[in-house]
């Protein structure tokens, strides 16, 4: 990187880096630093009168120099603590350079330092560390956006959502509460795994690249497998592989992993997301509802200390039991229309002419029509956990038909805070019925439904060997964490959500500048002066441009040979002729 592409502070920090090396201090030492204490523990374990010796390490987050003594604040992986630094304590001999030069001038906010010293309480009552040794562990050459306050106004806040998600490492370093969200996410996953493991179920891994995108209705990402010379799909679900394992004899299997759906992005959706799927033999969807209630109540209690969590202004209770409501009853309750027994055309007529829905497409089959009606009129109304049950067979190509209600299936979706959190079935294990359902999905695909399922012949073959009665469930981990942490955007609970490509300032290339006669070193000077595009210089006067370039050359001590007025005039004339 050319020095002129750096900010003023970045240049100063790199100069400090070189000064440290001249003093014989390695800014990035390799040796282990033996940390034996952490900020929060030091404070909680403090005993008045006890001179406890500690060794901590972390980022330098603030510094107040007061002559021969200073206060600093160190942020480690668990919190922050004040450090008291005196010149004569860290420089007991005649050489005071470590304090006067290194600590006061060459260390910067954001640097990682190690501190050895003892714990004490200041006259202001703040538990602190009295430093006896300071070691530079890693130099920060890019300034952190530390919030500063003046007259009650905050400056340099790092709160732009796009910046925060794109540079999560900075977000975690400077914004309070961000790390806590992801620690809670880890608690969700840890509690879920423990719950399944204690039930005797086995965590497994299935392929991410699949020859057929099965197990859900969604548009897949397509890639090419060079070694096999075939197109492959990023998985949209783990379902069909996990059920193969039930066929193979596992009692219960689960997987927590990434799925990929080539669809929209919004506050509730990310194309790459984390999902948990669980399948247990000899169970049905009624058992799975009770199991899910216990699971979510335990997770909420582990994360928040109680089965209740506040999301916005609403208190959501995961205390079992949850309400159970058939989907057609929910639609009747919210719209007044009873869709049970209605044909595809009758439902389309109700949606278009009675409910005045403008999202209805001619390619929609019966299941898709019902799903659209439920989504528009019902879904958002279910705030407290509610099991929506007994979906029509057209909506559920992998689900067992209802044992007592023709045309319906033994399926539920768990709605919480107006969104689907979980989807579960009494799994279809009749291979002939399954094949007929797949064929119907292909009919929908032929009619233009690009989310319809593809027939998985190997899965059908597995079912023909026999799959025991099984219940399965999928839970969206990202949405679950949103609920457990009270976050409104899925990006807040994903460490690195997918983002649009970062926008860049348009610039003429080095090659393009060379075509009008500008040497590479002067291209960076021109850019520093604000001339990013060749056409930017066409209205300049040669003498004025020469002066601007000369000022930058002098300021940054570049010692470049100054181009003559005739040379600069030729640059300008050539730039004009190119337009």
Chain-wise SSE layout:
Blueprint: H1 8-22, H2 39-44, E1 53-66, E2 69-75, E3 80-86, H3 87-90, H4 97-106, E4 112-121, E5 127-138, E6 148-150, E7 153-155, H5 161-166, H6 168-174, H7 178-198, E8 202-203, E9 209-210, E10 222-225, E11 230-234, H8 239-248, E12 252-260, E13 272-281, H9 285-304, E14 308-311, E15 314-317, E16 323-326, H10 327-335, H11 344-354, H12 366-377, E17 386-389, E18 411-416, E19 419-426, H13 431-446, H14 457-464, E20 470-476, H15 477-485, H16 510-515, H17 520-528, H18 542-555, H19 565-577
Parallel strand pairs: 3-5, 8-12, 16-17
Antiparallel strand pairs: 1-2, 1-4, 2-3, 4-5, 6-7, 9-11, 10-11, 12-13, 13-20, 14-15, 17-18, 18-19, 19-20
Helix pairs in contact: 7-9, 7-15, 11-12, 13-14, 18-19
GO cellular component, one term: cytosol
Organism: Prevotella micans F0438
Protein name: Lysine--tRNA ligase
Question: How would you portray this structure in words?
Answer:
With 579 residues, this protein is α+β, with helices and mostly antiparallel strands. Helices cover 36% and strands 22% of the residues. It has an eight-stranded mixed β-sheet with strand order 8-12-13-20-19-18-17-16, sandwiched between helices. It has a five-stranded mixed β-barrel with strand order 1-2-3-5-4. It is globular, with a radius of gyration of 32 Å. It starts with 7 loop residues before the first helix and ends with a helix.
